[in-house]
Specification:
- This protein is mostly beta strands and 163 residues long.
- The chain has one domain.
- The protein has 1 helix and 7 strands.
- Strand 5 and strand 6 form a beta hairpin.
- The radius of gyration is 19 Å and the shape is globular.
Length: 163
């Protein structure tokens, strides 16, 4: 295949979780950034100096992904849903009784869908790891980071489902 300039087009982002149907979050300033994190367990060996030496191999332990949104055109009501931490939370608070909830097992996680003209990215299990917003004369510009996790029963991190 020849080298070429590749682009996905404008990324439209959607959110779903709990009783929330798939709702449009909006569009970002410069697209969505997705970074995949790979997890390994190093295997030491006497051949390479034992525990203090470099590993002789690594055991693959799985993957997660970080999804970063730098929003400029968005639905504020949907963005407020994200601030609730869990998909059934309350804006501006986190009850002591809620501490210790299991986000995946108890169905508290979100689904994040990124649609582009080239390829959709559907992350069925996500948690919010960071939320920032500006308060100024300039346009409102929320910055949201999700951590996508694999489905514990299927291993699925993402697919191209759009419905």
């Amino acid at each position: 295949m020849a080298t070429a300039i590749i682009y996905d087009g404008a990324a439209q982002v959607f959110l779903a979780g709990g009783a929330t149907n798939l709702s449009e979050i909006g569009y970002t300033k410069n697209g969505v950034t997705i970074s995949q994190d790979n997890y390994y367990n190093p295997v030491p060996c006497d051949l390479f100096g034992g525990q203090p030496g470099p590993e002789i191999d690594n055991q693959a332990l799985g993957i997660t992904a970080n999804i970063r949104l730098d929003l400029t055109k968005f639905d504020w009501a949907v963005v407020e849903l994200i601030q609730k931490l869990t998909n059934d939370g309350t804006l501006g608070s986190f009850l002591l009784a809620s501490e210790g909830q299991l986000m995946v097992q108890e169905g508290k996680a979100w689904r994040v869908l990124i649609k582009t003209p080239v390829r959709p990215y559907n992350f069925p299990i996500c948690i919010v790891t960071a939320f920032e917003q500006n308060k100024a004369v300039l346009y409102k510009n929320p910055f949201i980071t999700f951590k996508a996790m694999r489905d514990p029963s299927t291993g699925l991190l993402w697919n191209t489902t759009t419905t």
